[in-house]
Write a structure and sequence with these properties.
- By secondary structure, the chain is of the alpha/beta class.
- It contains six helices and nine strands.
- Strands 2-8-7-4-6-5 form a six-stranded parallel sheet, sandwiched between helices. Strands 1-3-9 form a three-stranded parallel sheet, with no helix packed on it.
């Protein structure tokens, strides 16, 4: 295959509606809205539920566990992972050509995969380092035109934990790139912790996980929220007294059968 050939495309708890559903935290379903901070939560919800067609961006430092989380969720939606794009491009390039030479092509392919995934109308999982706000904004605009939502799950594990994760997987991000990602992500997490979800206006929800809580979410679903069960209706109290005497038909007296003259046997 020539160099211009293209590889195949993608295969703290808030107040209000982000609180997990169910009798307890363990095993509950979470329908996130706004900022949902689950850092330090050992019994975080096991199931995350998003609307049909939503795009969920999983962000974090290289080695923070994004790929592991996406593998657990991969049965629910297609995923776009830059590592997959890298390997797809590498597979069609001569072995003697270093990645630095065709990195621009790989980045273009990554964007093409994102665009293709966003256009399908189907739910999509996106692997992201968290330092590319343009990518989130692009996806939010693209899916927003279709009436769909963008959500973010951010893994806040710290640099040391992420570096250990890189060692465990046998791949290390370049030092300068890792430092840049770490600086931008640290700033983002700090702002989220102080200013709330308004920091990411393109996202309908932002869920924060750490090394403790990232193990809990075992699955994800894309389904409409169940209908709300209406409570008993009560008549408005406008201060007026109402009579409970039953209405009688014209020409009848209370206690007589409707339509019969008074005194007639019923």
């Amino acid at each position: 295959m020539s160099r211009t050939s293209r590889p195949d495309g993608p295969g703290r708890i808030p107040e209000g509606p982000g609180i997990p559903e169910g009798p307890g935290r363990t095993g509950a379903r979470l329908r996130p809205r706004g900022l949902v901070d689950l850092r330090g939560e050992r019994d975080a919800p096991a199931l995350f539920s998003y609307p049909p067609g939503a795009v969920v961006v999983v962000s974090g430092l290289p080695g923070s566990g994004k790929s592991t989380l996406l593998r657990r969720w991969s049965g629910a939606a297609a995923a776009v992972d830059p590592r997959d794009v890298h390997e797809a491009c590498e597979a069609v390039m001569p072995a003697r050509v270093p990645y630095a030479v065709y990195r621009p092509w790989a980045r273009f392919e990554h964007f093409r995969w994102l665009r293709a995934g966003a256009r399908t109308g189907e739910p999509l999982l996106v692997h992201d380092c968290g330092s590319r706000p343009w990518m989130r904004r692009y996806l939010a605009r693209a899916v927003g035109r279709q009436g769909r939502e963008l959500h973010v799950v951010l893994l806040d594990v710290g640099a040391a934990e992420a570096l250990a994760g890189q060692e465990a997987r046998g791949r290390r991000a370049p030092g300068r790139a890792f430092a840049r990602h770490e600086r931008r992500l640290r700033q983002l997490v700090r702002r989220l912790s102080t200013e709330g979800a308004e920091v990411l206006p393109e996202a309908v929800s932002v869920v924060l996980l750490d090394r403790t809580s990232r193990q809990r979410p075992r699955s994800v679903e894309f389904a409409a929220a169940p209908p709300r069960v209406p409570g008993p209706r009560t008549a408005p109290d406008d201060g007026r007294r109402t009579s409970h005497t039953p209405r009688t038909a014209p020409g009848s007296t209370p206690g007589s059968a409707p339509g019969l003259p008074p005194g007639s046997p019923s």
